[in-house]
Amino acid sequence: MVAALTRRFGDLDIAEEAAAEAFAAAVERWPAGGVPPNPGAWLTTTAVRKAIDRIRREHKRDDKHREARMPHDDTPAEPPGAIDDDRLRLIFTCCHPALATQTRVALTLRMVGGLTVPEIARAFLVAESAMGQRITRAKAKIKAARVPYRIPSAEDLPARVHGVLAVLFLVFNEGYLASGPGTDPVRHDLTAEAIRLTRLTRALMPRDAEVAGLLALMLLTEARRPARISASGELVALDEQDRGAWDATLIAEGHHLVRERLAAAAAGVAPGRYQILAAINAVHTSARDIRDTDWSQILALYDQLVRLDPSPIVALNRAVAVAELDGPEVALAIVDRLAEALAGYHAYHATRADLLRRLGRGQQSRAAYDRAIELAGNTGETAYLTRRRDQLR
């Protein structure tokens, strides 16, 4: 609805508030008058009226006001064959190069991904107030710059696709491991939508290697979803998952995409971040048992990734592979060097707790588990960490 309203009115604030007011009206009226035969149409019509009312209240006698009063033509502006998807249009609008990359991503997660400001703030490891201000300023800049609501031309796509992929990746991540305490541990609605939009982006840019890499990464990760949550709602770690429950069709498609990218790499085309992450997941999903995992190959891929993205989180994930090859003590030394950068990140403390557990340092491990549990918002992950902590002597 927000995407469709943005297409009509060209204003993110008006679209978001009108949609919210329409749902509020439904909550008020439907219990008494009953659900209308076509709820979606009722909501859309109500939202359009709310938007027009707001424009009138603000006395905006400009082109926007006149457009709102005119019969609306829903015919796509793009030529035949172009992708007509309101959400994808909105993603490309929010990912305009006039905005800083992190601001583009944050705004799009809010407008398209439906994530709350606290969820986005956790994804960026920043304060909620700072993230709220960043999103507000981004909407104002788009409005002031009159950024058009459309899928850009082929010449404009390369300048925007980096931000689009970052958004889709984070939307998928929020679904893969939801950060909100009041949500399901895994949100299939978000992972499915991220995959759908990535497929559309790949149709727009079939030769872009990173688009293919991100799609492969999503498919190989989504393939493990049936085995990731236990019957009691607890997160199931990779080494404990029933690999027979993994989706073989998604794995086959993901592996095919990875092999395509490997062939390109062999021809001298260096892989990007998403391609390397997809290759790491391909190694994991190729092993029939956790003991068959080729950790040396995974570490080599992380070494490549660190050169592209020397972030503390990549270093943390690399340390997990180091632990399998060189032992937990070597890995712990790497992890401890990340203490300042990742002090508020629950996965840092969870990783450290596991390494300390493997070294027999129970008291320190318990303290690290306690901190990880305190910071984790995902209910399934909290249950898993609590069980692991309680198993300590």
Automatic annotation (TrEMBL):
Residues 57-75 have a biased composition (Basic and acidic residues). Signal peptide: none annotated. The keyword Cytoplasm does not apply. Residues 91-142 form the RNA polymerase sigma factor 70 region 4 type domain. Residues 57-81 are annotated as: Disordered. It comes from the Bacteria. GO terms for biological process: DNA-templated transcription initiation. One of its GO terms (molecular function) is sigma factor activity. This is RNA polymerase subunit sigma-24. Keywords: Sigma factor, Transcription, Transcription regulation. Residues 4-60 form the RNA polymerase sigma-70 region domain. It holds the Pfam family DUF6596. Residues 160-260 form the DUF6596 domain. The keyword Secreted does not apply. SUPFAM superfamilies: Sigma2 domain of RNA polymerase sigma factors, Sigma3 and sigma4 domains of RNA polymerase sigma factors, TPR-like. Belongs to the sigma-70 factor family. ECF subfamily.
